[in-house]
Amino acid sequence: MLDWTDRSPDATFDLHGQSVIEAVANAERFLRSQAKARRGGTVRLITGRGRGGGGAPIRTRVRGLLRSLKESGSVVRDYTLESTEGSYLVRLEG
To answer: What is the rounded distance in angstroms from the CA atom of residue 66 to the CA atom of residue 78?
Structure first.
């Protein structure tokens, strides 16, 4: 049986070019709408890896969002930082 991370995502949302505040708000809106539309599905959030030496503020804030949504138990079942370190694969609640 395949692990959920081996599935192709049902939808992808790219946060490039957004401010940190916009990216977090838009990521939450995307995740909530996808959790309703694709119960138990898998989605990808592209955060980018940050600028050289400048950290990755969007990735860091999105990780916090994913953690809190997972703890609330209503939107995110699980998530993982993909090997490129520029995106998260997210398993939605079913």
So the answer is: 8
Domain count, the chain: 1
Asked if the structure places residue 2 within a domain, the reply is no
Range of the domain at 39: 8-92
Q: How far apart are CA 21 and CA 10, in angstroms?
A: 25
Domain of 65, CATH number, reads 3.30.1370.110
21-45 pLDDT tens trace: 999 999 999 999 999 999 999 999 9
43 and 30 Cβ atoms separated by less than 8 Å? yes
Q: Which of 45, 40, 36, 39 is nearest to 11 (CA)?
A: 45
This prediction has a pTM of 0.92
| Mean pLDDT across 11-25 | 95
Q: Where are the alpha helices (DSSP H) in the chain?
A: 20-37, 57-72
